[in-house]
Amino acid sequence: MIDLWTVLQREFVYIWYYFEVQFKQIFLYWVLGMLIGSFISVFAKNHIHDAFAGMNNKKWGVFGIIPACILGIASPLCMYGTIPIAASFRKQGMREDWLASFMMASILLNPQLIIYSAALGITALLVRIVSCFFCGIAAGLLVFFFYREKEFFDFKGFSERESHDTDPNPMMRYIKNLGRNIRATGPYFLAGILLSALFQRYVPQDMMVHVFGGNQAWGILMAATIGVPLYACGGGTIPLLQSWLMEGMSMGSASAFMITGPATKITNLGALKIVMGWKRFLIYILFVMLFSLLSGMIANLM
After folding, report:
1. What's the CA gap between 20 and 201, in Å, rounded?
2. Within-domain flag for 56
3. pTM, two decimal places
4. Is residue 42 assigned to a domain?
């Protein structure tokens, strides 16, 4: 009779095997993402935000949501860093539809996450970039059409946060930012790989295909729903998505997960609730769920 210790050793070997395989597949993308993300944060962040502020003098009307969305994706800041920046833009008279597009895109995607997502393959990477871009556009359009004559955001009490990148030596600024980046993303990255290994060991592949495969709207809805509690850090979800896609998850389900995950991340929701109020906050949640379902169905059709 096999004793418990032997069983545990065997299971550890299996889980370590899955962990090691996926770690080797994703580690390079994680490192590249941090190197490039920290570089943008230290040397390009101010240029990106200055470019957005400079839009205030342009007469682009609603079409300004397009560059606003692109700059939101390019911004390396998290939502708690983006809101004070947006608050300062609003004080300068920035249009609310442009701010909505910038903030929505900034929530969903950043340069570091783009590099991470390359580990999922070119198709998933393109789906993520395109769906996040159009989600930012849709957010700007909705604010334009329904809140043109009234304020959508309430930025009272928000001011720009003090920058940590203050070392006079540019290389030291970069190294310190990189260190903070490693501390912030490393635990989630390793936890994501561990969760992925556990899924691969204990969740049957045919179950994944049944729940998330095919073109069924149910699979997309399920993926959109589990994106809410599972998402903590972009890098931490890449191992899960990679293993799910390999086991039969449809691209539409992956697209829905990639929208609802960052859009409903707990820290992001806390910040957005403050600047939106309950009514507009609930509208935001509804918008995210509906857009994720729509983007998922379109991805499956294509």
Report:
1. 13
2. yes
3. 0.85
4. yes
- Between CA 232 and CA 266 the distance in angstroms is 8
Question: CA angle, corner 272, sides to 231 and 150, nearest 5?
Answer: 145
Q: Could you write out the DSSP letters of every residue in the chain?
A: ---HHHHHHHHHHHHHHHHHHHHHHHHHHHHHHHHHHHHIIIIIHHHHHHHHHHGGG---GGGGHHHHHHHHHH----HHHHHHHHHHHHHTT--HHHHHHHHHHHHH--HHHHHHHGGG-HHHHHHHHHHHHHHHHHHHHHHHHHSTTS-----TT--PPPPS---SSHHHHHHHHHHHHHHHHHHHHHHHHHHHHHHHHHS-HHHHHHHH-TT-HHHHHHHHHHHHHH-S-HHHHHHHHHHHHHTT--HHHHHHHHHHHHHT-HHHHHHHHHHHHHHHHHHHHHHHHHHHHHHHHHHHH-
> Which tens digit of pLDDT belongs to each residue from 131-160?
999 999 999 999 999 887 778 887 776 655
Tokens representing 276 are 């939106």
Specify whether the CB–CB gap between 115 and 36 falls below 8 A.
yes
Does residue 3 lie within any of the structural domains?
no
Q: How many domains does the chain have?
A: 1
Please check whether residue 180 lies inside any domain of the structure: yes
Convert the pLDDT of each residue in 155-201 to its tens digit: 776 655 666 667 788 888 888 888 888 888 888 788 888 888 887 77
To the nearest 10°, report the CA torsion of 285, 152, 49, 69.
50
Q: How far apart are the first and last CA of the chain?
A: 53
Residue 275 sits in which domain range? Answer: 8-301
Please check whether residue 251 is in contact with residue 299, taking contact to mean a CB–CB distance below 8 angstroms.
yes
